[in-house]
Amino acid sequence: xxxxxxxxxxxxxxxxxxxxxxxxxxxxxxxxxxxxxxxxxxxxxxxxxxxxxxxxxxxxxxxxxxxxxxxxxxxxxxxxxxxxxxxxxxxxxxxxxxxxxxxxxxxxxxxxxxxxxxxxxxxxxxxxxxxxxxxxxxxxxxxxxxxxxxxxxxxxxxxxxxxxxxxxxxxxxxxxxxxxxxxxxxxxxxxxxxxxxxxxxxxxxxxxxxxxxxxxxxxxxxxxxxxxxxxxxxxxxxxxxxxxxxxxxxxxxxxxxxxxxxxxxxxxxxxxxxxxxxxxxxxxxxxxxxxxxxxxxxxxxxxxxxxxx
Length: 309
Ligand code: CP
Hints:
This protein has helices spanning 3-6, 16-30, 53-64, 85-95, 109-115, 132-145, 164-175, 193-200, 215-220, 251-257, 277-280, 287-306; strands at 42-47, 68-72, 99-104, 120-126, 153-157, 179-183, 208-211, 223-226, 262-264. It has twelve helices and nine strands. Helix 3 (53-64) crosses helix 12 (287-306), helix 6 (132-145) packs across helix 7 and helix 6 (132-145) packs across helix 12 (287-306). It folds into two domains: 16-131 and 291-307, Aspartate/ornithine carbamoyltransferase (Rossmann fold); 132-286, Aspartate/ornithine carbamoyltransferase (Rossmann fold, 3-Layer(aba) Sandwich). The protein binds phosphoric acid mono(formamide)ester.
């Protein structure tokens, strides 16, 4: 097994064909096709940051695969006695785990773990860097509605600067050949993002566009994805002097510009900030499906990593 098959740290090393295959395999799981049995294998959840949907969906996926799920309660761990991250990893490595699922407030933490363990590692979100299982869940939710990503235009709205979901999703959507519109307060839009993706593939250049107002991107989009404003990641240099409510999605905007569009949000949603309560719970919203699909996608990812597929 090579390094890239052993871990899921971001979506950058996944090919378009691999992702399409993962979508089709996930559909079979969702439709109730056979379950793998990994009895006797051990999974360790290391969540240094809060989580509801990612952690619980991993836990449920592990139960379905008969895996032993061990959660280290970080707040009650020997971290409080001064143990370093490195020594925590080495200690758990000695106890013996087959798979780590890690969420950490520092970008790169999952990569550091992967370098210092013999086990597989899934990145469940590292700082503002990457959240690959959210991206694959979002891709699957879109795939259920529209199988051909090349025909799609997707708008991502809000706090792009501090969002690990934005980084992984932009990369994932571009890989699949979709067009992307980026819009939100200019203080929270990193223009440099375009250079990062240009360095991966020049053909991406024309697939990503930045907007300073709503009309055109919403009119053209098949999917609108709002992002949570990540105040906990703002630093002292972040200019907070913007009107976030200008970027809120609500029924009025949808009905005015594009009644056919689907709305998405990786969650948790700050209702009435990024999106109105009415829209979150409307028939245009795929938010509950994103959460539901997270279980199936995470199950398939674990199967591929532990089953040497
Ligand atoms: N989208 C997401 O990662 O949600 P949680 O923080 O609840 O896991």
